[in-house]
Amino acid sequence: MSATLLDVAAVRARYAALDRRLAFFDGPGGTQCPDEVIDAISLYLRESNANIGAPYETSRRTDALVATAHERAGAFLGCEPGEVAFGQSMTALNFLLTRALARELEAGDEVLVTRLDHDANVAPWLALADDIGIVVEFVDVDDQLMLDLDDLAAKRSSRTRVVAFPAAANSVGTAPDIHRVVELAHEVGALAWVDAVHHGPHGPIDVAAWGCDVLICSPYKFFGPHMGMAFGREEVLRRWKPYKVRPSADEPVGRRFELGTCQHELLAGFVAAVDYIDSLGWEAITAHEYDLGTRFLAGLPGGVSLHGSQTMDGRVPTFCFSVPGRSAQSVAEHLAARDVAVWWGNYYALETIRRLGLDEDDGAVRAGIVHYNTAEEVDRLLAGIAELV
Description:
This protein is α/β, with parallel strands linked by helices. It has helices spanning 8-12, 35-47, 57-77, 90-102, 123-132, 149-155, 178-187, 207-210, 234-239, 264-280, 282-299, 328-336, 350-355, 375-386, and strands at residues 23-24, 84-87, 110-114, 135-139, 160-166, 191-195, 214-217, 228-232, 305-307, 318-322, 340-341, 343-345, 364-368. The strands form 3 sheets. It has a 7-stranded mixed beta sheet with strand order 2-8-7-6-5-3-4, sandwiched between helices. Strand 3, helix 5 (123-132) and strand 4 form a beta-alpha-beta unit.
C-alpha cells in the first residue's frame, strides 16, 4: 500500500494541538481534535446555545443540529438516523442498553464475551450475572491473540442470547472477522453486540453490511469530542423498555435511550469530526496507517516482546509490547522524556493482560498509530525503544 494519497503535512496543519514536538502515540486513549471540531463546539455555544423544542431562534437552531447529528451518525454507521442514540460515553450507553435487554433475560441465559474486550463490554454483563444470574463465558484467543473462532463456535448453545466482541482490540490491535462472528451469533439466535470504539479511527463502520444488532462507539476516539454513540437495530430497540423519564421522546426509537438533554455543543463537534474524516477519505487514512504500522514492525528492535500479530494482517496499527528487564511504566516514562507519548498498564483490557500472564497493574506498553502520525515520529518512537534494549 502507499501513503501518497494522504498529504500528512496538510492534515497536521489542521491541528493546533500537533504544533509541538510531542509525538502522540496515545490515540487508543483518545485522539487529538482538529481545529474545526473545536471551532464547531465554541461556535454553537456562542450562537445557538439553547434547549430543544422552543419557538425562538437558538432553540430552532439546536433542533436542527440534533437532527443533523443523527443524520450524520446514521451515515457514519451505515444505519437509519432513528437507530442512533447519543450519550455520556460508550460505557454509560452500554450499561443503559444492557439493562434494557436484561428485562427480557432469565437466570441461566448465556452471554459470550472475549478475552480481547475492553471491560466496558465485559463488566455490564458480569454485573447482570450478579443481578439476575445470567452466565458469562469468555471466548479465548490463540497465541497470536487472534480470536479463536472454533472456541466461539463450541461455546455457543441454545441459551446464548448475546455474543459481545470488539471490532478491534484496544490493547493489541487485533481486528476479528466481524462477519464470521456475527454469523456464528445469529446461527444460535443470539444478538451480535459490537464494541467499535477502537475501530472508529481506523476504518469505516457499516452495521448494515456487518449485520450486527447493537454497536457502541466513542467519537473522542475518532477526532471528535468526549461522548458516546450507539446503534441498535430498530426491531431490537422497539421490543426493549428503556430506563428513561416519562415525557422524553419515544420517537425516533433511538431517542428512547438518550437520557436527559444531549450535550448539544458536543453534537456540533461530532458533526465536524465526521466532516473532517469525509474530507480525507478512508482509503487515504488506511493506506497511510498501514505504511506506518509496517515501518514500526520492521524497525522494532530485537529483544522487544511484541504481544499479538507480528504483521499488519488482521489488525489495526496499535501495538502492545514489553521490554525485558523494564517495567511498562518505566518504558513509558523514558519515552515521555523524549517527547513520545505512549500508554502503559492494562488499558481496561483485563482479560487480555491476564491471558498474556502480565502484571495486571503494570501491564505492557501500548503505542497507537493514527493518520496524523508521521514516519519521523515512528522513527523517534523506535529510537527511544532501542535505547532500552
